[in-house]
DNA sequence: CTGAAAGCGCTTACAG
DNA sequence: CTGAAAGCGCTTACAG
């Protein structure tokens, strides 16, 4: 790489001091002579000077970069959230570093530590939930931090997530004409808020309608075990006549199973899921889904982070923001 | 934020000089006394010291960060490529900044300039193709750069992409029993290598089989115009009996159209596309697809970038790497 | 209206 | 085996 041009080169070339060039770069023209300005301007052009942001960051203690830690960028919801965050940051002249924690708390910790060492101005995370002491420390330092999708108990960290109870209520409503609803879900853990809340919400809301959701009707397992769980579910003496698939990944397994077993939707069993999927409209039958406003949620998270960055003392935004799910009524129930 | 602990604090606390602490941090223990080592170690622990990477970057001229500029992170292929790159970088202790250029050359230029100002160690880009002078400049500076998915004519920049001609050949082979194949594609522009090559490859390979692809059988338009183009296509006196959908986004439109028009696959018209999609296996009928090894491609791009970072003089890797498409034979043709 | 000087938090020859 | 000094490329009081 050729030798980089620095502010000194520009200063010499323009016949002024580094300070003056710096003033110019930072738009503090208040007292700057017209001539000086022009000299600097043309020196910059001629030398093709571009300031070294690392040096600036060191001095200003801001890297104009934020970190986003998702469980896995391959999940559609995460991708949409990242896109919204990146758009927001781009407008502000910020960059975003993307990290995949893979639901692994060690990896999450490594990422948080490294991002901090790189002096990123803030972090938006889908927290694993297992690094409570670490989160707590960041909170105490007033380090700008926003959580997405998952609640961590007892921590006063602003969080953006779906109103999962509402989503469950909508699912119950969509399935109200069916007698034996079942739910299919990935493994349940306390800190996996979406799954927990959707399950609990579904159960409670069914109860309000005088229907109970017994454990047999809860098919729960890792993605690669779902087929087996579904098999068991449909071997019950009274198999379900409706299914609530808790997210898009589970939905895939359900559709695959239905297809393989020649179970017709909605005639044999009705189906609704959370997360819109690309093929929902032209699938046979078109799938009724409950979607999350992913872009708005991402944008909100970015906004919350920036208000913290601007004013780390401000405590007013340290709350939980629930977004409304939307029903896309189609043909599967 | 509380006052950050610096290397000076550690030095004072341990009763040694900053230099020695720095040696320790960088693992140069060669001549370091056992006691010194221990003192430093415990000082770091007690103070919870973590080095400021920005300061280190300034001195070392490496930010241990790379930039990835995609057209749009929402495209599945891009997401997969990013995931592979991020995994690779994470192993090396690097971070990745993700940027969406939206096929907009101004946006691309802004991103490249800003990434460079932030001293990222290299860039992997899905180039818009319209900033040739800029690319040229980076090349001359020997700035680490790898292109993905798209070829830019006349520039000796290492590029990773699918063997699109091979993909087209495979498509022709899969469709060999059909008489009037058509192709559906997003708008064609010289620098949009995948589309161009797949179209040309398809045409040429058909010719080898004694079939011609007349212009009427090329449905080409922006995603939101595809439905209209398909309508025209199927109003031909001799409508196609097979379709090659050039990518996943086009495929969605085709399936939507087929569904709406009650055209049966493969009885009325056979179908094959490039890019595997999540629902291919359980769609009715299961979709025959030609997929790209996205993860390997992303990994390769990262490897190429790192060899350039390690040795910017080395010219040996400045070539084009074509990856083999794979056929996933299912039921749609 | 502009410049000299100090400092951000590191690393790295070099001296001893 | 360890430390003093210079320097990476900026910014920012402060002086004049």
TrEMBL record, chains A, B:
SUPFAM superfamilies: lambda repressor-like DNA-binding domains, Periplasmic binding protein-like I. The keyword Cell membrane does not apply. Residues 3-54 form the HTH cro/C1-type domain. InterPro entries: Cro/C1-type_HTH (IPR001387), HTH_LacI (IPR000843), Lambda_DNA-bd_dom_sf (IPR010982), Peripla_BP/Lac1_sug-bd_dom (IPR001761), Peripla_BP_I (IPR028082). Residues 5-60 form the HTH lacI-type domain. The keyword Repressor applies. Pfam families: LacI, Peripla_BP_1. Keywords: DNA-binding, Repressor, Transcription, Transcription regulation. This is LacI family transcriptional regulator. It comes from Oceanobacillus kimchii. The lineage of its organism: Bacteria, Bacillati, Bacillota, Bacilli, Bacillales.
């Amino acid at each position: 790489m050729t030798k980089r041009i620095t502010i000194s080169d520009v200063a010499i070339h323009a016949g002024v001091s580094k300070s003056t060039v710096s003033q110019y770069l930072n738009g503090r023209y208040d007292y700057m002579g017209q001539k000086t300005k022009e000299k600097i301007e043309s020196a910059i052009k001629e030398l093709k000077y571009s300031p070294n942001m690392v040096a600036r960051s060191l001095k200003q203690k801001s890297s104009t970069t934020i970190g986003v830690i998702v469980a896995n960028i391959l999940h559609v919801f995460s991708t949409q959230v990242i896109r919204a965050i990146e758009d927001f940051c781009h407008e502000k002249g910020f960059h975003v570093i993307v990290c995949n924690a893979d639901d692994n708390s060690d990896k999450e910790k490594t990422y948080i530590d490294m991002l901090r060492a790189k002096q990123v101005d803030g972090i938006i995370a889908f927290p694993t939930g297992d690094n409570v002491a670490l989160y707590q420390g960041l909170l105490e330092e007033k380090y700008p931090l926003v959580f997405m999708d998952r609640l961590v108990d007892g921590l006063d960290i602003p969080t953006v997530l779906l109103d999962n109870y509402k989503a469950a209520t909508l699912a119950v409503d969509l399935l109200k004409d069916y007698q034996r609803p079942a739910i299919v879900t990935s493994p349940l853990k306390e800190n996996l808020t979406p799954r927990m809340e959707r399950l609990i919400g579904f159960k409670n809301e069914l109860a309000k309608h005088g229907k109970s959701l017994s454990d047999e009707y809860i098919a729960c397992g890792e993605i690669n075990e779902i087929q087996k769980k579904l098999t068991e579910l449909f071997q019950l003496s009274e198999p379900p006549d409706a299914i609530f698939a808790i997210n898009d990944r589970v939905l895939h397994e359900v559709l695959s199973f239905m297809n393989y077993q020649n179970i017709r939707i909605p005639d044999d069993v009705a189906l609704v899921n959370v997360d819109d999927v690309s093929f929902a409209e032209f699938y046979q039958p078109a799938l009724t889904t409950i979607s999350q406003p992913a872009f708005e949620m991402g944008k909100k998270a970015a906004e919350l982070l920036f208000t913290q960055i601007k004013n780390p003392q401000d405590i007013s935004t340290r709350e939980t923001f629930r977004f409304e799910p939307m029903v896309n009524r189609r043909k599967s129930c």
